Amino acid sequence: MNDDIVSYAEHEAIRIIGKQEPEPSIQKVLIVDDDRSMREMLSGILDSKGIHSLLAENAADAMDLLKSEKLITLVITDLRMLPIDGLAFIRQIRNSVWADLPIVVVSGDAGIRDAIDAMHLGIVDFLLKPIEPEQLLPLVNRELGIKA
């Protein structure tokens, strides 16, 4: 077992104990969507406010980024993706060392059942596409601890 691996919850506890303010310039938001234009649009909204994002086309790429990138503090994911859909991806996160990671779902065609299932998995919020900056930014700022 590798003792150098610190879970997201442990990282947050260390930050709170140290009473350090979050640093928006180093926090990263992971955007997962199989639609390239949607990934880039969401990234552009965040980038316009100085929030760094990482982009993944699918759940497998996203899990690789979670394993390799430090300081991912929020995930924004679509539900309709292949080969692993967004709900299965969220379950993977919840059953990993990143179980406490805040997750926002964005979807253009999700039904009520999808929204309920996502809420049961402890997501932060569920936004319907098309996404407007006025919807996304206050939510991201709150989750990253950024004062507007």
Describe, in plain words, how this protein is organized in 3D.
The protein is of the alpha/beta class. The protein has one domain: Response regulator (Rossmann fold). Helix content is about 40%, strand content about 20%. The protein has helices at about 10-15, 35-45, 60-70, 85-95, 110-120, 135-145, and strands at about 30, 50-55, 70-80, 105, 125-130. Helix 2 links the parallel strand 1 and strand 2 (about 50-55). The longest helix has 12 residues, at about 35-45. The chain is globular, with a radius of gyration of 15 Å. The mean pLDDT is about 85.
What is the structure about, briefly put?
By secondary structure, the protein is of the alpha/beta class. It has helices at about 10-15, 35-45, 60-70, 85-95, 110-120, 135-145; strands at about 30, 50-55, 70-80, 105, 125-130. The chain has one domain: Response regulator (Rossmann fold), CATH 3.40.50.2300.
